Amino acid sequence: MPTSPERRRATPADWWVGARPHTWANAIAPVIAGTGAAAFHGGASWWRALLALGVAWALIVGVNYANDYSDGIRGTDDDRSGPLRLTGSGLAAPSAVKRAAFLAFGAAGVLGVALSLASSWWLILVGAACIAGAWFYTGGSHPYGYMGLGEVAVFLFFGLVAVLGTEYTQAGGISAMGLACAVGVGAMSAAVNLANNLRDIPSDTASGKITLAVRLGDARTRALFCALVATPFVLSLLLGFTATWWALLGLLALPLAAVGARPVRAGATGAGLIPVLGLTGRAMLAWAAATFLACVLG
Description:
Elements: H1 12-18, H2 25-40, H3 46-74, H4 86-89, H5 94-117, H6 123-136, H7 150-171, H8 176-199, H9 201-207, H10 212-216, H11 218-242, H12 254-265, H13 274-297
Protein name: 1,4-dihydroxy-2-naphthoate octaprenyltransferase
Keywords: Cell membrane, Membrane, Menaquinone biosynthesis, Transferase, Transmembrane, Transmembrane helix
Subcellular location: Cell membrane; Membrane
């Protein structure tokens, strides 16, 4: 009697893809920019920067596994054109993906507590809010990611909180330079998320996932994406005239950002938008690195 072939289980390579390394720039860039803002005022601390990097990296890995789990059990990943999803593809049990998410959140919590105790204890509360925000993006009975608030949360947590938090833990305060870096990184990080949701408008609409892209529609989502990507370069110009002319180094990332935005401006859909995420993330990383250098030199 013929037997059905045994279903393939997730390999380490699949778990690596499930962690979505192309999104890790969203965690690395805020720490680079925040450390630069601290250095601008003579307060950079490399070991605290490394702790902040560990927190941010663990948090984004946790977010990615949590999204994989929550979207997978809701069925919103059944018809999508993006990278492999562990839960939706059936390669990993939902409980295993959920456990991976909480292990990552736990690591972020441990590192975050250590960083908070080295600076200000109340940052533990901020860290707890970040972990809750990461889970309830697509988790829980009323995920705010399904209400069109995903980009707002990304701007808040991976922009304002991550950059200003990094600066505060090193310099003991926040500054106008830090705020400019936070807005620039947050805008581009939100653009990465928006590009992902632009790609998924058809499948999200069919599954009832009301993202900001679904609310705005295709044309207005593309316009917003371009505005978000342009934001850090406008800030580079402003900082170049008001803080240090070295801030103009941030404009070196503009060609990469323009290449990343080209498919969005050209009307690409589905799989044609997948490269936008990685290219925009790298442009954000390049802008953060150039702005860090500007802060050190300025």
